[in-house]
Amino acid sequence: MKSSASIAMGKTSNPNQLQRLGILLSGRGSNFLAIARNIRENKLPNVEIAVVISNVADAAGLSAAKDLGLPTALYVSKGRPRADHDQDLIACLRGHKVDLVCLAGYMRLLSPEFIAAFPNRILNIHPSLLPAFPGLDAQQQAFDYGVKVAGCTAHFVDEHLDHGAIILQRAIPVLESDDAHSLASRILVEEHIAYSEAIARVASGEYEIQGRRYLQRANA
Ligand code: GAR
Predict the structure, then answer these.
(1) 17-119 and 124-214 agree in CATH topology
(2) Measured in angstroms, how far is the CA atom of residue 114 from the centroid of ligand 1?
(3) Residues 6+ away with beta carbon under 8 Å from 218
(4) Structural domain boundaries of the chain?
(5) How many other C-beta atoms can be found within 10 angstroms of the C-beta atom of residue 173?
(6) Which residues pair with 74 in a beta bridge?
(7) Selecting from 3.30.565.10, 3.40.50.300, 3.40.50.170, 2.60.40.420, what CATH number does the domain 124-214 have?
């Protein structure tokens, strides 16, 4: 039996209330676009995108968000102390009344203050089956290691790199014909499915976290 201190419950008191997403990205933005498409196609009925924030001025994902008419913000992080930059992000996300923060290719570590500002409310998608291959170029790491199964992980974010409780994973075989590029492309297809599925599960509020274990309740 786990102690109650190790249990965190989903926070959604009213499942009919839309969960407002704050998307953080640094580049291409294909994961963000997959989420936006699933919302548009009513495959994510419980959520809406409140704001898309980039830390990189020429991030393609930022332009794509503007083209979709979504609220956007740019806070260039280069050369700024992490804590100062993150205070701007926290204020922006709070200003847009964000319930869930979704890292979608946000290639910058978050400060402890940021993590504490959104406890169990920050999600990330990572292109490996964690805890294998955290950090940069995970697909290349997996390919070079010679693994036979690769994939992606949707997880909560805590103060350690690519480390928080795992919401779900999707696995694919590594083919003999693969190179690191083709492997990354096939993992990306899985990421686009996994991230929306993880967001839907968390947005339902029907879950609990026991230690490192994410447990979905039956009626989600
Ligand atoms: C994705 O593969 C995502 O998993 C990865 O960056 C890429 C962003 O692509 N994130 C990480 O490696 C985080 N540790 P996208 O901008 O097209 O979504």
Answers:
(1) yes
(2) 20
(3) 206
(4) 17-119, 124-214
(5) 12
(6) 54
(7) 3.40.50.170
Block residue for tokens 């190790």: 6
pTM of the model: 0.94
Phi, psi of 49 (to 5 degrees): -90, 120
Give the span between the Cα atoms of 86 and 179, in whole angstroms.
Answer: 37
Indicate if ligand 1 lies below 6 Å from the C-beta of 27: yes
Pocket flag, ligand 1, residue 61 (CB < 6 Å): yes
Residue 38 CB less than 6 A away from ligand 1:
no
pLDDT in tens, 3-12: 334 566 675 5
Residue among 120, 125, 98, 119 at smallest CA distance from 197: 125
Residue % of the chain over a pLDDT of 70: 92
* Residue with tokens 């909560």, as numbered in its chain: 156
**Parallel, antiparallel or unpaired: strands 19-25 and 100-103:** parallel
